[in-house]
Every structure is written in structure tokens, then in C-alpha cells.
Structure to design on (299 residues):
């Protein structure tokens, strides 16, 4: 019973921590470290929730979750008692749902990107002024990347007219960060969880928080190449120009929380100390390993 209680407590701690993380602002000072912590909380919550149910169901055998499941399969014995059978069914069902929604979301996103790349091959063009970038003849403001093994950065003709050279360089550096750091993979599990739990305010807020941190991380990458004020003015121009929505499966400049990002670029607060950032990442790694280790813990 020790493993079941420990896993249930761990799942509760992750849920409460995620709820608290949606309202704090220290994450803005170290978005990459905060993203790592968010990923650890999400993964650990899923494994701990499933593990708590399975550990309770398999507790009479005293073998832990992993070895208990192996024993269940090899000996074809079901747990004694209706409650333990229900816990086993619930745990396996939750694990199946969590895995399935991620796989389905990934398949849908991959298909959407494939269709969009095909569309770009028909309507987009190369522009000598911005080598390596695909340009779409559209008067609206748009800038986004289509992630993948061969990521594509796309801008509109309206963006070329709207931004100065420095502002355009800032926007392209922002999109390059999305492509290089594969922020789409960061957002995918949170988007999948929001799809399966649309009624949960914590899940919605968690997705929004991670999406904002992803944009801030891309902003930080861009301001290493260009003055931060150039990116800030580009964000303001996009915000006032009525930029159209980013296609499904792509990552764009982000129209949400523009003023928070602009203020952060123009008036940056004190940077988080390196040892604190490393401490957060180390804590996230330790948290990620905690649930799998408890799966092996004998009852």
C-alpha cells in the first residue's frame, strides 16, 4: 500500500503545483527552465495517477506495479475483490486514454502540416530579400513556422510591407527559435490534454501558460540577435494590424499577451540567477524520475 499512497500523493502534489504555476510570474524570468518544470509536472501527474490505481489493484501480490503487471499477464490472475478489479480497469483505461490522445493529436498535427506544406508548394514563393523563407501573397500580417524535420518559415507579403528590416529580422529569429527548439513538441501533450479535458480550468490555464512561455523563450532567442525594442515594435505592429490566425500545426508570433511580452522586452526585470535555473531543471529531472521509480517499489 506504500507505493499506492506515495503515487497518489505525488499525483496530488503535481496537480496542486500545476494550479499554482498558472498564477505565478517568476516563470517569465526563466521560461526555458519553467517549460522543463511544466513538462515534468505533466508527465509525472500522468504516471503517478495511473500508477496509484494500478498499485492499489496489484497490492495483494506485493510485487509493485511493473512486476505485478508482468505477474498478472503471465499467470492470468485477476486481483481479488471488486474494488481492486475496478482500480485495475480504471488505471489501464486512464493509461490508454492518455497515450491515445497524444498519438491522435500527433497524427492530426502531422497530417495538417503535410497538407499545409503541399499548399505552400502551390501558392508560396521564394523571395531574394529573405532567403530560406517562403512568402505568401496575402495583404494581411502573418509570420509562422511549420515545424518538422525540414521546418519552413512562412511570412506574408503584408508582413514585408508592414515591418522594417530590423523588425523583420527579429520576427524571423523568433520563428527560427520555434523551429530549432521544437516548441511544437512542448505544446503537443498540453494541447492533447486540453482536448480530452476541456472542462478543466487548470488544464486550460496550464496550456495557456506553457504557450506563453514558449513565446517568451522564442523572444529571448530573438533578442540575442537583434535589439529587443525591434522585436517589441514588431509585436505591436502585428497586434494592431490584425494578424490572421496561425494554421493548425504551425507556430506563429502569437497574438496573445502581447503587452506582457512587450513590457518584458522593453523593461526586463532582473535575470534569474543561473544556479536557480539549474536548480529548477534539476528538480524537474528528479520529479520526472520519481513516478517510474515508484512503479518498481514493492508493496
Amino acid at each position: 500500500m506504500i507505493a499506492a499512497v506515495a503515487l497518489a500523493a505525488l499525483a496530488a502534489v503535481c496537480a496542486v503545483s500545476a494550479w499554482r504555476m498558472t498564477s505565478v510570474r517568476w516563470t517569465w524570468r526563466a521560461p526555458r527552465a519553467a517549460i522543463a518544470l511544466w513538462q515534468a509536472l505533466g508527465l509525472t501527474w500522468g504516471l503517478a495517477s495511473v500508477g496509484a490505481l494500478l498499485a492499489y489493484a496489484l497490492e495483494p501480490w506485493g510485487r509493485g506495479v511493473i512486476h505485478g503487471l508482468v505477474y498478472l499477464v503471465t499467470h492470468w490472475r485477476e486481483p481479488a475483490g471488486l474494488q481492486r478489479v475496478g482500480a485495475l480497469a480504471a488505471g489501464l483505461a486512464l493509461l490508454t486514454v492518455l497515450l491515445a490522445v497524444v498519438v491522435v493529436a500527433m497524427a492530426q498535427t502531422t497530417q495538417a502540416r503535410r497538407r499545409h506544406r503541399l499548399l505552400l508548394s502551390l501558392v508560396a514563393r521564394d523571395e531574394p530579400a529573405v532567403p530560406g523563407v517562403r512568402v505568401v501573397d496575402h495583404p494581411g500580417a502573418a509570420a509562422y513556422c511549420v515545424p518538422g524535420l525540414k521546418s519552413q518559415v512562412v511570412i506574408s507579403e503584408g508582413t514585408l510591407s508592414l515591418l522594417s528590416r530590423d523588425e523583420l529580422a527579429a520576427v524571423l529569429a523568433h520563428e527560427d527559435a520555434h523551429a530549432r527548439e521544437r516548441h511544437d513538441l512542448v505544446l503537443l501533450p498540453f494541447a492533447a490534454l486540453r482536448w480530452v479535458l476541456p472542462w478543466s480550468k487548470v488544464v486550460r490555464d496550464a496550456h495557456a501558460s506553457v504557450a506563453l512561455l514558449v513565446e517568451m523563450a522564442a523572444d529571448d532567442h530573438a533578442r540575442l540577435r537583434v535589439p529587443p525594442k525591434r522585436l517589441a515594435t514588431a509585436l505591436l505592429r502585428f497586434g494592431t494590424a490584425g494578424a490572421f490566425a496561425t494554421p493548425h500545426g504551425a507556430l506563429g508570433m502569437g497574438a496573445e499577451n502581447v503587452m506582457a511580452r512587450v513590457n518584458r522586452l522593453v523593461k526586463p526585470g532582473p535575470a534569474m540567477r543561473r544556479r536557480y535555473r539549474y536548480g529548477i531543471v534539476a528538480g524537474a529531472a528528479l520529479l520526472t524520475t520519481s513516478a517510474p521509480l515508484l512503479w518498481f517499489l514493492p508493496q
